[in-house]
Design brief:
With 317 residues, the protein is of the alpha/beta class. The protein is built from twelve helices and nine strands. The longest helix is centred in the C-terminal third of the chain and has 16 residues. This is DUF1152 domain-containing protein. Pfam families: DUF1152 (PF06626).
Length: 317
């Protein structure tokens, strides 16, 4: 049955110390938890990191670099919104001590230093970035980029690291329509990456999988701890896993919009990271950035130089 092995799993077969990192912050790292549980069950060391939207400067934890904090179950911080802290606490309730390495929302250069710190500390030989959604594949000339800053900073930083195995996973096809992303352009990007031998396949999560059941348990526990800050991405994926379909709203945050919950939201889309980075039209414009403000300005400036953006394309299905 080896001929049915997805290229993604061949790519990480020899890796022993894997860093799973939420590329876009917030709940992105949670989208990697089914994979985390699965890889760990294979005997691999797997570490968790995430761009944090919580104010780390007011939290307790060990600073490993100017933009990197180790968050544990003992960390104290903003109780209203700190998913990484609550994730570490969930692990502690399972009698596991799993630190979550939190990156500040920053420019590419501090993020690059933070990633190199983790490589040295954890002897990382593979990095897998996780995007909850699909806006990480927007190259810059699409009609809407979603919320690109954190995703693109993560991709640009990891692109510069001297590792053989650097991958990107997207989970939640269709969810970023809420943020203005045209998914025809996502599929166009997948086709381009396939031509460059950078598309490593897709596979579906189902609610029967033990790894997915644990993922659901974590999400529900963290959402109970932060009831005023539900994740649009995570609640949409859980709804799709339950077989819900169409304009189904699991959180009031999406009120007034039209959703399309469907089975495609449960697919992992897998890519080699370097070709993803190389197709970003403004990559060289952001490599020097130090702050998130620098990054936002560079993207906005690039957009003003475009003679036109691509038009919106409705999927003909």
């Amino acid at each position: 049955m080896h001929y049915l092995t997805l290229p993604f799993f061949k790519e990480v077969e020899q890796a022993q110390s894997i860093l799973l990192a939420g590329a876009g912050g917030g709940f992105d790292i949670f989208c990697g938890l089914p994979l985390y549980f699965g890889l760990r069950d294979q005997g691999k060391q797997v570490h968790l990191a995430n761009v944090s939207f919580s104010p780390l400067f007011s939290a307790t934890g060990r600073w490993l670099s100017p933009a990197l904090m180790e968050v544990t179950a003992a960390t104290q911080g903003n109780s209203r919104y700190f998913p990484e802290m609550y994730l570490a606490q969930w692990f502690a309730a399972q009698s596991e001590q799993v630190p979550i390495y939190c990156f500040e929302r920053t420019g590419v250069q501090p993020l690059l230093t933070a990633y190199q710190t983790l490589i040295d500390l954890l002897h990382v030989d593979a990095i897998i970035l996780i995007d909850g959604g699909t806006d990480s594949l927007m190259r810059g000339d699409e009609p809407g980029l979603g919320t690109p800053e954190e995703d693109i900073a993560s991709i640009a930083a990891v692109h510069q690291l001297p590792l053989a195995h650097k991958l990107l996973l997207c989970l939640g096809f269709g969810i970023d329509t809420f943020h203005g992303v045209c998914h025809a352009h996502f599929l166009e990007a997948v086709a381009e990456l396939a031509r460059r031998d950078a598309f490593l396949g897709t596979w579906s999560l189902t609610k029967e999988m033990p790894e997915v059941q644990r993922y659901r348990e974590v999400i529900e526990a963290v959402l109970r701890a932060m009831p005023k800050h539900p994740s649009i991405v995570s609640t949409s994926i859980l709804a799709a896993l339950d077989g819900l379909f169409g304009d189904v709203h699991s959180t009031g945050r999406t009120a007034g919009s039209t959703l399309f919950i469907n089975a495609l939201m449960t697919l992992y889309w897998c890519f080699r990271l370097d070709p993803v980075a190389q197709r970003i039209l403004y990559l060289n414009d952001i490599l020097h950035t130090q702050t998130i403000r620098d990054l936002t300005y560079a993207i906005e400036l690039f957009r003003t130089t475009l003679p036109a953006t691509k038009g919106w394309v409705n999927l003909p299905i």
